[in-house]
Amino acid sequence: MKYVQRLLGLLPALLWLQQSFAQEIRVSGVVTSRSDAQRVPGAVIRIKGTAHGTQADADGKYVINANATDTLQVSFIGFQTALVPVGNNRVINIALESADSKLQEVVVTALGISREKKSLGYAVQELKSKDIAEARETNLVNALSGKIAGVQVTSSQGSLGSSRIVIRGETSIAGNNQPLFILDGIPVDNSQLGVGTGRDFANAISDVNPEDIASISVLKGPNAAALYGSRASNGVILIKTKTGKEVKGGLGVTVNSNATFDRVLILPDFQNVYGQGAGGQFSYKDGKGGGLNDGTDESWGPKMDGRLIPQFFSNGEAVPFVPHPNNVKDFYETGYTLNNGLAVGGSSEKIDYRFSYNNTKQVGILPNTGISRNTFTASNTFRIAPRLTLSTYANYIRSSADNLPGVDGRRGNSVTLQFIWFGRQVDVSKLRDYKNPDGTDYNWNHSYYSNPYWIQYENTVGQLRNRFFGNARLSYQILDWLTANLRIGTDYYQDRRKYKIAYYTNGTPFGSYTEDAYAVSETNGEFTLNAKKQLSRDFNLDVLVGGNIRNNRFEQNYQQAPKLAVKDVYTLNNSRDPLLSTSYFSRQRVYSSFGSAQLAFRNYAFLNITARNDWSSTLPVENNSYFYPSVNGSLVLSDALNIRSKALTLLKIRGGWAQVGKDTDPYQLINTYPFNQPFGPNPLLTVSDKFLAKDLKPEITSSTEVGLEAGFIDNRIRFDFTWYQSNSRNQILLADVSPTTGYLKKLMNAGEISNKGIEVMLGGTPVSTRSGFRWDVNVNYARNVSKVIELDKEGFLNNYVLGSTGNMQVLASKGQRYGALYGAAYQRDAQNRIIVNADGTPAIDPNKKILGYYTPKWTGGIYNTFTFKGISLGFLIDTKQGGSIYSGTNYTGNYTGVLATTLPGRDEEHGGLPYYRNGQQNIQLPSHTATAPNGAEVHHDGIIFDGYTADGKKNDVILGAEDYYKAVYNSSLNESAIYDASFIKLREIKLGYTLPKTLTDRWKLQSVNIALVARNLGYLQKHVPNIDPETAFNTGNGQGLETLQIPTTRSIGINLNVSF
Amino acid sequence: MKKLLIPTYLLFAIVLLASCRKELERINKNPNEPTTVQPDYLLSNGIKANVDTYWGPDAAMDGTLLYVQYWSKIQYTDADRYIAGATGTQTVWSNFYAQGIEDFTALAQLGDSLHNPNYKAIAVIMRSWIFQQLTDLYGDIPYKQAGQISQYLTPVYDSQKDVYTGLLAELKQAATSLTAGSNGIGGDILLGGNILRWKQFANGLRLRIALRIADREFATAKAVFDDVAAGGAAALLPKDTVVKLNYLASPNQNPVGRNRETRNDYRISKSIVDKLKALNDPRLPIYATMPKDTNVIIGVTNGLPSDSAARLGFTKTSDAGTVFTATTAPAILFSYAEQQFILAEAAQRNLIAGSAPALYNQAVTASFVQYGIPEASAVTYLTRSGVAYDATNFKKSIGEQKWLALFGQGIEAFTEWRRLDYPQLKAAYAGALGGNIPMRFKYPSSEQSLNGTNYKAAVARQGADLLTTKLWFDKF
User: Which of A158, A198, A225, A955 falls 20 to 30 Å from B54 in CA-CA distance?
Assistant: First the structure.
């Protein structure tokens, strides 16, 4: 509160600073770029030989006082400096020639302020529209992968679904670690709603159409983002949309058309020797135990050598038992995405306008899955009066899906569970007609599964999302150096989902029907006052103060008919049992006031200060106000020391310190009593499992960073280095506690986590010939070291559970790197040898151990571009190194005997040992041809586990292959399923061609561009077998647990863009 | 315009500063759930939720019902081979503590604040019943510091001896403080608000615990029996009463019934079928169903490998009887039959005065009646060799008949089998414990990460955290 008064106190001082230059004349004009006639906001206009100058506004307009004898010196990054004598002109419009240099970039920073990159004391990286639109990622987040140092993207499984993005590692132990998305100055939601429902719904930012994006700035860490407050402590992704201003001439029409095809990238490597069954035996009768092991879904059955066995399709007749090597692969289809868009834009003296429409139809690789999306945008700028501008942006998106793929390996809605148990002899094409005449399903197994096509066509999940976001901004230039902005923005969507489980589905004989509806909204009202002032010859000051009110609302309504009364009718009325209903409503409000100031000295030394105070409804009244400042500076040494030369084009150092406060979710202060479903006429209320905290305090992240930027040899080599350190304390944790406390979770203000790291970017132009051939290469590298310093103040808690599956937990463990994979390990002796039980199986250590960390040690990417006369070829390789993954696909597939890795030892041919059974004991035989005493059956699938007995003897107990693999790979022993998740991936290849101007002119077109894009081409390095190590199941923090993922896809697409 | 905008800004700031705090607090009032609770709703919930756990898949079906060889598995046989999944023990632990101990602790406090000692006493009885299940299964458990999160974030484990003796004291106090006629209670879905019945149930639990510790703490046990005996006949359950939760139609169905709606993994164990057959016991056709394809009740051997179990055929083997698998089948917490078995053994061991054979005969007869078999059949049954009470080997007589009578009550039967060592059971055929049968549940692995220091102390005192570690009460 005091802070606001302080800020208000600043105002008169600013007013006082206004000076007049009565003896001079007033010159105004517009600065444009000669090459494309676009306006150049932020261009610097100076009186040559003096320090007197100004900057062009957001529309490229400037006003300056000058004498007739003066010469205007107009400069801007990326352009050659222009000199224009003033003379008697009152209006001087200046067209700048572009300089072939990436040195003096302008980047969009917090609150949409364009700043020269050299003036910033922190790292910012920007992607331009071409990079985003041509990459053709359906989930916007994926387009950032590998291109920006320190940005980690974990992309969706399959081709639909969610992607997770984290910048500079996880700073919050428990909370959201994803950055804040700001579109044209207004936050847009990126929630993933409905996590844990067995479907991987796409995160909300995937609604944004890449075609509408002009640029994306990534503000890393709190230093860059302090002005955005609470939610910016994990960084900010600033999205700037296209406007009509970019259109040349009066009217421009752009048509964009794109088609992308997706195929499965990685499937498990299956064995094709042994079929379904157990103990080597199988015979089908009813698929649920009526025949010989026909209820068993594992592949420990007979050899698939064509022997005659009754099978599911043969009506009891014995037919050849043969492998179907592609029975899983054949189930997946070619997915595709068709994207068609049209944009119309133009600009005139009074108005810039742009309308666009985009239609995306995406079909998944799983049968009967897909989503379609229609996007309408309107972006307008009205120059109402010389000093008054109104800009509006409106976006309406309608996404609808009839069916989305199921995840989490749930039996009713996911096929990936079934496929890791799929009998190797099963011919998937015989399952395509999935329904029997009586309406039940036709399948290879009826003990556990419904037909996979049944799951895809009958047990569907539909989604319909209607979303509107937009903003209106009124900008008034009060004085030449003082601008006021009022901005109102909203993001509102309704998301309705319908889950159908059909009658006769295995496990739910009556089926079920669920409707889950969400309404989410955020509105922001923001007022800012911006003063830009030349203080003296050497000093420039740019000050901004403002206030913001944010309102969030969330509503969920969930209703389920748990058992249908009548089959095939999906309404809530069609219910055998009482409906299961829940509803939830929440509200949140945050008031903020903020300010920033930049003081520039001779355009080479810059000092930036920001401060913000938030008042959040989610915190207790005593603690709900929190203040956090930041300071950073930069010094362009090459200019300050005047050592700029052809060899050294830029040398800049920068540094800063920042704090960001963070509140929590609504209703975390007072304990409540949740409802349970009534027991007959008796209503049920229970004590909540969560113990809340009355006296919660805001979470504070402090961060320091320093950096160095340099350019050499006419900027042919560019280098950017950042070191940062951040520390988050007073973290708001909903920590798992021992259930013996009476609660499962306790909300507390505890926890401290530190992140340290470096980011390096190296850019170069190794070749640039006169003929126009150019090779650019950009390399980025980031290393982040996180450490959980403290959990609770009292020291009771050593571990915070981020996620779990079975025994396996992902922890924030005190003193450790974030994201420890904690699970059951082999028991080892003093020499670290695995101890074996008396029965020959590996012993499990009664104490769980840390088996790895999902967080990578470092990430990086290399992007090469070759351009020659309108042709460009780019390819991106990126990598994550040093993380681990727990693979459910691998342990399950080894347990069930379907993976090729279960062949060793299964018979004589695969190195199995001969033995016979004596009661429960297996006795090894000297050779495969030896006979066993008393005519006992000789087995050839013996394996001896490589370990030692507790008393130090080499293990010699022989196990049958089935027993061996089941003993090593099961849910009680996690260590055997931990793999190195490191990879190097060929992420993207782009081949683009822009038709020559001579040709397009002849056709009266502005430009024609064709691009071929291939994504996720393959791995150059990968350690984990059978799966893609780079998979998200949701956007939460419990990563590193792979549970029966949908295979990721490789995609190839073509993009056509025509402007006329 | 210029004049207008600055005052707007000032106004904006002033409004912001003045109104924010109270407004913000109002916004953060949770509209979704109440912040206070009614005792009757809490009582109903506590009974339903915890009986579900007690009778449910983790404590009973995949645990004690298999260990004590009431049931066996014909599919997914790992649990029957003592290869315990990770989640079962966690669910039992989490549910009993976070739903049971906490709900009833809150109800006890409500009883105090509402000046209704009957609510408090019932809360303490139910909480004691839950603690008894927990210590029967795990041994040393957090007891004195449990369910008090504000004071104890990592509760200390108490020795099993301390838990049982603590429960005896709590139950005595609760039984004493119950007063019929005033302080009515609502939401009692177990005993319909019958205060006298609650008192009898509390006393029954006291006797159960007293006998449990009799091998270790005879004097303490004796004092309890004396005290209950002093209350006269009204202190104990009258003939043929059963403390049970009657389940309703879906979605409030019996957990076993819920399992049978969709799964077909369980069978009745060969061990109990063989015993019932050997004794020509009329409870056999009630405890077991007739398989579809045969006219003979066939039990399945415990702990077969998956392939050999599946090969037996779903339609050729018997499931447990519909009395147990029906949607509305009751879950039994305590019965007159069990009470008489306790008294029989107490008489045999001079904990009370009375005739052990007579009480034993009453117990067996009560079990027959409980399953709708006429008392007359019990008369002939009780004369058979192998049934007639044998004072020289009372553990065998009582152990076997109590085992038969407690069918379906996995936790209690498993505990009494450990204490009495009868019936003599053979370990699961392909058991994973080297020919041994489990003697307890393992602590859930989350205790290692969330309450590590106290967990380690408990393990150091009690013995390794293994299924085979014997508990304190299990002296022989």
Answer: A198
